[in-house]
Write a structure and sequence with these properties.
Blueprint (H helix, E strand, L loop, with lengths): L2 E11 L4 E11 L3 E5 L6 H9 L6 E6 L2 E2 L4 H6 L2 E5 L10 H7 L4 H7 L16 H14 L4 E5 L7 H16 L3 E5 L3 H7 L2 E6 L2 E7 H6 L1 H8 L11
Helix pairs in contact: 5-6
The structure holds adenosine-5'-triphosphate.
Length: about 240
């Protein structure tokens, strides 16, 4: 398998106290890797460090096997894409203009996202939250990045939109993209993921295949995601 992006012994924080403690993870071409864990465990910090928005105090990020030195804006020009819950479209522009601004062909996008076809000439600000997020993701994926870092894509959106976004992410991985997915809907995330890391207090506490995680799902949820921990054991 081809490693696209990896964290090697990564220690990162926002000040002198680290948030991630010697993190090791990798995402290969063609796979969706879910990064799960309770609030504050360091999921967003991991994505920001992989993207180059935070500098490690120890360890390194590797991009296609080489130590990554480029800052965030340059990594995004070299095949890395980041999508967050923030729906980063320009609200005063139409959907079509948003796509063109990113040098993406709107007509090609609607082939894969027919639900956007009737909305191309509407201002993004007038679309529903779900449509805005589909537009955001469609724009990112249409640029065919080598890796996608997806942080809570579906936050606040309806279940069918969540499923749609995750299906699109899965298809992108099937076409060769490496995807690291932070997603609050654990069951839905496991349905599209190949592998899983569970973070706890800035350390990988569990990792395995999605099938193994599904078999341990109730324990993972209760141990790591804030449920009843009285019967939980470490998977
Ligand atoms: N800008 C920041 N400045 C200082 N500390 C921060 C900052 N952002 C996050 N932290 C701290 O880093 C730790 C990890 O936060 P992070 O957002 O990475 O976790 P998370 O797993 O993504 O949580 P959530 O699921 O709530 O988004 C937390 O203790 C948080 O308070």
């Amino acid at each position: 398998m081809t490693s696209i992006i990896a964290a090697c012994d990564l220690e990162v924080g926002y000040g002198p106290i680290p948030v991630l403690h010697g993190l090791e993870l990798e995402v290969n071409a063609g796979e969706v890797v879910a990064l799960l864990g309770p609030n504050g465990s360091g999921k967003t910090t991991t994505l920001m460090a992989l993207a180059g928005a935070l500098s490690p105090s120890r360890g390194e990020v590797r991009w296609k096997g080489e130590v990554a030195h480029l800052p965030l804006y340059q990594r995004t020009r070299h095949g890395l894409s980041i999508v967050t819950e923030e729906r980063s479209v320009v609200m005063s522009l139409t959907a079509r203009q948003n796509l063109r601004l990113a040098r993406v062909d709107p007509e090609a996008v609607v082939v894969d996202y027919p639900e956007l076809a009737d909305h191309l000439d509407r201002k993004a600000g007038l679309l529903s939250g779900g449509q805005q997020q589909i537009l955001t993701l469609a724009r990112a994926l249409a640029r065919r990045p080598d890796a996608l870092l997806a942080d809570e894509l579906s936050l606040g959106l309806a279940p069918q939109i969540t499923s749609r976004l995750l299906t699109a992410v899965r298809s992108a991985a099937d076409s060769g993209m490496a995807v690291l997915l932070v997603e609050q809907h654990v069951r839905k995330a496991l349905q599209v993921a190949d592998r899983v890391y569970v973070l706890r207090q800035g350390r990988i506490d569990w990792s395995g295949t999605a099938a193994q995680a599904l078999a341990n799902q109730s324990r993972i949820e209760s141990s790591y995601l804030g449920g009843n921990t009285s019967t939980a054991t470490t998977p």
